[in-house]
Amino acid sequence: MRHPARFTGVAVALAVVAAACSSPDDSAATDDGGGQAATVASCGRKLSFDEPPQRAVTLDQSSTETLLALGLADRMAGTSNLKTKVAGKYADAYGEVPVLSPKILTGERLREAAPDVVVSSFTDLFTKDQVGTREELGELGLPSYVSAVDCPQHHDPGKTPFDLLFDDYENLGRIFGAEKRAEQLAAEQRAAVEQATETAEKVTEKPTVVWLYSVYKGLPYVAGESGMPSEMSRLVGAQNAFDDVDEDWPEVSWEAIAEKDPDVIVVGDLSERGAPGDSAEEKLDMIRKDPLTSKLTAVTENRIIEVPGIEMDPSVRTVNTLRLLTKGLKDLGYVS
C-alpha cells in the first residue's frame, strides 16, 4: 500500500543536491580494492558512475536492507519508509544511518541529504509529488536505481523474480565496488532457492495457497500471479490460488477467498507498521469471524502459516519466508 507525500520544488531542490554531491577525494575503499567506474542498466535507464557513490539514499526498507547486507552502511546518507523493524542482523549497521523519514520521503528531505545516488525497490516511489520522477532526477545529475524485480519487462523473460533479485545484488555490487560481497550474498540465497526446489520433488499432493498480505478498509489484499509469493509457491511444489490475477497484490473479497477454498493460508504479519488489520492476529480474527472463510477447511484445521509481511515482497529477507513456507508445508503433512 502506498501513501502519498507532498513534494515541493523538485527542480530547484535537486539542483542543490547535484551540486552538493561528494567529490572524488571522498571516495572510500571497496572490498575489491579501491574506486572504479561502473555502468549498469536499471529499469530502462543506463546509469554510469566514475567512482563508487559515497552518499546513497534509500526510499524503502527493502533497498535499505539490501545495502546493509552488502556492508554499505558507511556509504548511506539516509534511509526512509520503514514498514517494520529492521532485521536483527542489520540492526547495528542501521543504527549508523540517518533516518530521513519513517514514511515516504519528500523532495525537501532528499535535498537536505545531498545524495549521489537514490536506490528504491519500487518505481512508484519516483513521482512528482514525492521525490520527483527518475527523468527529473536524471536531468539534474542524480542517478536512481530501481530493483530489477519491479521492471521485469527490461530483462530476459525467462528470469524468475529470484533471478532478478540476484541481478540487483550484482548491479549494486558493481555500482558500489562491492562485487565480492554481492557474489557471496547471491550464492547464499541461490542455495536456499535450490533447497526449496528439492522440497517440490517430495510434495505428496499439490496444495493451493492463499497469501494474505494486508487488510485495508475491511478488504483483503492477496498475492497475485506477478508477485514473489507466486514464485515461492511454484518452487516448493504448491499453487498460488490467485495466479489467475495478473497483479502483485490485488484487492479481493472474503467471498473470493472462500470460493478458492485453499488448502493453506499464509498470513503476513505487519504488526509493527501499526495500521488496522496489519497484524497476523487481526487478519486471523477476521478470517475466523467471517461467515464464509470461517468454514474453510484450511481455517477449521488450522492450516495456517505465519510469515513476516515484509518478506512477501522481494528483498534480502525473502528467502527466510521461503524457508518458513517449506517448513510449514512439511509440518502440515504435504511433504513426504
UniProtKB/TrEMBL annotation:
The keyword Iron does not apply. Residues 55-336 form the Fe/B12 periplasmic-binding domain. The keyword Zinc-finger does not apply. Residues 179-206 form a coiled coil. Residues 1-28 form the signal peptide. Pfam families: Peripla_BP_2. InterPro entries: ABC_Transporter_SBP, ABC_transptr_periplasmic_BD. Keywords: Coiled coil, Signal. Belongs to the bacterial solute-binding protein 8 family. This is ABC transporter substrate-binding protein.
